[in-house]
Every structure is written in structure tokens, then in C-alpha cells.
Amino acid sequence: MWLFCSLISCFLTGGVAVLPAPQNLTVLSTNMKHLLMWNPVAQPMETVFYSVEYQGEFESLYMSHVWIPSSQCSPTSGLACDITDDVIATVPYNFRVRATLGSRTSAWSTLEHPFNRNSTVLTAPRMEVTEHGLHLVIKLEDLGPQFEFRVVYWRREPGTMEHIKVVKNGDIPVHLETMEPGAVYCVKAQALVKLIGRHSAFSQTQCVEMPEESLPLALALFAFVGFLLILMVVLLSIWKTGQLLRYSCCPAVVLPDTLKITSSSQELITCSKEDVDACAVAVLASEHLFGVWISDWRKGLMD
Ligand SMILES: *[C@@H]1O[C@H](CO)[C@@H](O)[C@H](O)[C@H]1NC(C)=O
Ligand SMILES: *[C@@H]1O[C@H](CO)[C@@H](O)[C@H](O)[C@H]1NC(C)=O
């Protein structure tokens, strides 16, 4: 009679109204990212929370009563838990999940087979192959610090050898080779994970064709150098003309009498009084013009 009563009272307070345990625990693991998933415990109009705990190999073997709460899901209202940070060694891990609703708690549901991260699915890495000038450049998908990539590339021509380069990081463009104009180069890559001693399949081969001689660039360079040369010649001749005018018509120093050219027949250029005045103006004017021209040219460059 007492037993019956206590059972009834227990039932009324809700301690016995059993919450079903989550079913169908599975681990989805791709590229070393691990996700534990389970089926929902349906409770209409209520939010059920789930707690996840795990045991590594050491706890399983020597301390089977010790379960460690998962870093991400203690608790969670979702139906999946990112357990990547909990799995820190390549050994079997046990996981268990239970549901909680208010003060009611379900039994634990345990993963059928322990999970080892060496079973992760490795996908062929995404890659971008481009040419910059004559440089063959590859950029690989960023899959995290545990990943390296083996890149195989070759010139598409009979009898050429394959080259292999190991790239440490994804997400950073890496120079593979300086190429010959007009040639076609092909690249494929696979992901390597040393921690678990496995690698993915190779990505699909991508080929890029180098442009023929980069003629337009060479021409542009040639034209620019030519322009600079002509400019220098013009500037030099303007300067030289100015100098000539100044020294022949407008002497800056008073020469000793012995050095003075007295005979008009010996004069290189005949300079009358008016000529000297005029040439002084001309020299000044040419220098002024030159200054204006230079400043215009600078403005033009800056625009
Ligand atoms: C178990 O979970 C997997 C992955 O979430 C799902 O594909 C499968 O349908 C589920 N099985 C049942 C019986 O619910
Ligand atoms: C993972 O490791 C375990 C134990 O070291 C081994 O028995 C199993 O074959 C490995 N699995 C894979 C896919 O490498």
C-alpha cells in the first residue's frame, strides 16, 4: 500500500514521467571537422535541451566512470554538436547524449561504435590556378592548420616531367614556376593530414595557357624610353642655346684687356649694343619658358 502510494505521488510530481533518450547518434566527419548528430526528442510546445559528454581512449580503458562534458554542447538546444575541439588525439572516442526538459532528464544514449578521427572524409581541395605575367600561381582552399597540400604541376607537352611542391597553408597564393611564353601548364593538388596519415584524392586538373611574347608591353616600354630620349635631347639643346647666347652676347665677367676681342672681324657673333640687351631678354625669356613648360609637364603627370 505504501509502495503504491509513493509510486502515485512520484508519478504526480513528474519524476517518473520518463523523457525518451535521443536516438540514432551518428558522427559526420569531413576534413577533420567532426559533428555529432541525433534525432530530436519530440515534446510539443517545449524546448528540449541536450547534453553531450565524451570519453577518450584513456578514460574508456582506465576510468570508465569518468565522462567529460563537451566544450561546445553542455547543454545545447540544437540537434548537432561540433565535437572537433574535444577530439584531440587519433584514438577511439565514446560519445553520449541525453535530453533534459525542466527537471526531467532522459537516459543517456551512446554512440554505437567509438569514433576515431582517422575515419574523417577528406575531399579533394578546391584550388585557383592563375598566371600573373609569366608566373604560375596557385591558391588553395583554407582547411585549417592540420592540412598540407601536395601540388603536382607540369608543362603540357610530350616527355615533360611532373614537378611536386608541398604547400603548407591554404588561402595564400603560392608561386609555382616562371613559365615560358605560349606554353600550357597543368596543375592538380591533394590534401594531406599527417596527424592521421591520410590524404585526399587529387583535385581535377586545371590548365592555363601562357600568352605569347608580351609584345604590347615591350612596345609600350620601347616607346616610353624613346620619348624620354627625345625629351632629353630637346631639353639639352634648349639649355645649350641659352648658354651660347649668354656667353657670346652677354659676357658675365669683365675680361682683362689682353683677352678682349677688339677686332670685329674676329668676333664669332657680332653683338651690337641693342643685340646684347635683346639677348639678355631672350636668355631670360627662354629660361622662363623652360620653367613654365616643366611645371606644366609635372601637372600633366600628376593628373
Ligand atoms: C540517423 O541520422 C542520419 C544522419 O543524421 C540520418 O541520415 C538517418 O536518416 C537517421 N536515421 C533514422 C532512423 O532516423
Ligand atoms: C584508424 O586507426 C585505427 C587504430 O589505430 C585503425 O585500426 C583503423 O584501421 C584506422 N582507420 C583508418 C581509416 O585509417
From TrEMBL:
Gene3D superfamilies: Immunoglobulins. Residues 1-17 form the signal peptide. Residues 1-108 form the Fibronectin type-III domain. CDD domains: FN3. GO terms for molecular function: cytokine receptor activity; interleukin-20 binding. InterPro entries: FN3_dom (IPR003961), FN3_sf (IPR036116), Ig-like_fold (IPR013783), Interferon/interleukin_rcp_dom (IPR015373), Type-II_Cytokine-TF_Rcpt (IPR050650). Coiled coil: none annotated. One of its GO terms (cellular component) is plasma membrane. Residues 139-210 form the Interferon/interleukin receptor domain. The chain crosses the membrane at residues 215-238. The keyword Acetylation does not apply. Keywords: Membrane, Signal, Transmembrane, Transmembrane helix. This is Il20rb protein. The lineage of its organism: Eukaryota, Metazoa, Chordata, Craniata, Vertebrata.
